[in-house]
Amino acid sequence: xxLSTAPASKLTLLNKISCAIFGNVYNPQGIRTGNKxxxxxxxxxxVNSYYPNVKQIKLRExxxxxxxxxxxxxxxxxxxxxxxxxxxxxxxPPKKGQGRRSTLKKK
Length: 107
What we know:
By secondary structure, the chain is mainly α. It contains six helices and no strands. The protein has helices spanning about 10-20, 35-40, 45-50, 60-65, 75-90, 100-105. The protein is elongated. The N and C termini lie far apart (about 100 Å). Keywords: Mitochondrion, Ribonucleoprotein, Ribosomal protein. InterPro entries: Ribosomal_mS33. It is found in: Mitochondrion. This is Small ribosomal subunit protein mS33.
Protein backbone atom coordinates (compact mmCIF):
# COMPACT_ATOMS: atom_id res chain seq x y z
CA UNK A 1 0.00 0.00 0.00
CA UNK A 2 1.61 3.28 -1.10
CA LEU A 3 0.91 6.73 0.33
CA SER A 4 -0.83 7.97 -2.80
CA THR A 5 -3.58 5.36 -2.51
CA ALA A 6 -4.20 5.85 1.23
CA PRO A 7 -7.40 7.72 2.16
CA ALA A 8 -7.09 11.42 3.05
CA SER A 9 -8.35 10.87 6.62
CA LYS A 10 -5.53 8.41 7.34
CA LEU A 11 -2.95 10.82 5.89
CA THR A 12 -4.18 13.66 8.09
CA LEU A 13 -4.11 11.36 11.12
CA LEU A 14 -0.56 10.29 10.22
CA ASN A 15 0.47 13.93 9.82
CA LYS A 16 -1.08 14.83 13.20
CA ILE A 17 0.70 11.97 14.98
CA SER A 18 4.05 12.75 13.35
CA CYS A 19 3.73 16.38 14.44
CA ALA A 20 3.07 15.23 18.01
CA ILE A 21 6.08 12.89 17.95
CA PHE A 22 8.60 15.33 16.44
CA GLY A 23 7.35 18.41 18.28
CA ASN A 24 6.09 20.28 15.21
CA VAL A 25 2.99 22.44 15.09
CA TYR A 26 0.07 20.72 13.38
CA ASN A 27 -1.19 23.16 10.77
CA PRO A 28 -3.14 21.40 7.98
CA GLN A 29 -4.45 24.63 6.37
CA GLY A 30 -0.97 26.21 6.17
CA ILE A 31 -2.07 29.31 8.09
CA ARG A 32 0.70 31.70 9.15
CA THR A 33 1.32 31.21 12.86
CA GLY A 34 4.50 33.20 13.52
CA ASN A 35 6.15 30.03 14.81
CA LYS A 36 9.36 30.80 12.88
CA UNK A 37 9.79 34.08 14.73
CA UNK A 38 8.88 32.60 18.11
CA UNK A 39 11.55 29.89 17.70
CA UNK A 40 14.33 32.46 17.12
CA UNK A 41 16.68 33.41 19.92
CA UNK A 42 15.74 36.55 21.86
CA UNK A 43 17.76 39.66 21.01
CA UNK A 44 17.08 41.66 24.20
CA UNK A 45 19.45 39.81 26.56
CA UNK A 46 22.28 40.09 24.04
CA VAL A 47 21.79 43.83 23.67
CA ASN A 48 21.57 44.31 27.45
CA SER A 49 24.73 42.34 28.07
CA TYR A 50 26.66 44.49 25.57
CA TYR A 51 26.40 47.63 27.69
CA PRO A 52 27.96 47.59 31.16
CA ASN A 53 25.54 47.93 34.04
CA VAL A 54 27.41 50.71 35.84
CA LYS A 55 25.61 53.41 37.78
CA GLN A 56 27.37 56.75 37.59
CA ILE A 57 27.52 58.54 40.92
CA LYS A 58 27.09 62.29 40.72
CA LEU A 59 28.59 64.89 43.00
CA ARG A 60 25.13 65.90 44.23
CA GLU A 61 24.53 62.36 45.57
CA UNK A 62 27.88 62.36 47.37
CA UNK A 63 27.15 65.70 49.04
CA UNK A 64 23.77 64.38 50.16
CA UNK A 65 25.34 61.27 51.69
CA UNK A 66 28.24 63.11 53.33
CA UNK A 67 27.45 66.80 53.92
CA UNK A 68 30.37 67.13 56.38
CA UNK A 69 32.83 66.95 53.45
CA UNK A 70 31.68 70.40 52.22
CA UNK A 71 32.13 69.55 48.54
CA UNK A 72 31.33 72.30 46.05
CA UNK A 73 29.93 71.60 42.60
CA UNK A 74 31.79 74.02 40.34
CA UNK A 75 29.29 73.71 37.48
CA UNK A 76 26.37 74.57 39.76
CA UNK A 77 28.33 77.44 41.30
CA UNK A 78 29.09 78.97 37.88
CA UNK A 79 25.47 78.48 36.82
CA UNK A 80 24.21 80.38 39.86
CA UNK A 81 26.77 83.16 39.30
CA UNK A 82 25.73 83.52 35.66
CA UNK A 83 22.08 83.60 36.73
CA UNK A 84 22.72 86.36 39.27
CA UNK A 85 24.64 88.41 36.67
CA UNK A 86 21.77 88.05 34.20
CA UNK A 87 19.28 89.16 36.88
CA UNK A 88 21.37 92.28 37.53
CA UNK A 89 21.17 93.17 33.83
CA UNK A 90 17.42 92.44 33.75
CA UNK A 91 17.80 89.34 31.57
CA UNK A 92 16.72 86.75 34.16
CA PRO A 93 13.44 84.89 34.23
CA PRO A 94 10.38 87.03 35.01
CA LYS A 95 8.55 86.80 38.30
CA LYS A 96 5.61 84.45 38.49
CA GLY A 97 2.60 85.84 36.65
CA GLN A 98 4.55 88.58 34.86
CA GLY A 99 5.71 86.68 31.78
CA ARG A 100 5.07 87.34 28.11
CA ARG A 101 1.63 85.75 28.07
CA SER A 102 0.29 87.96 30.86
CA THR A 103 1.45 91.12 29.06
CA LEU A 104 -0.34 90.01 25.87
CA LYS A 105 -3.66 89.70 27.73
CA LYS A 106 -3.46 93.28 29.05
CA LYS A 107 -3.29 94.86 25.57
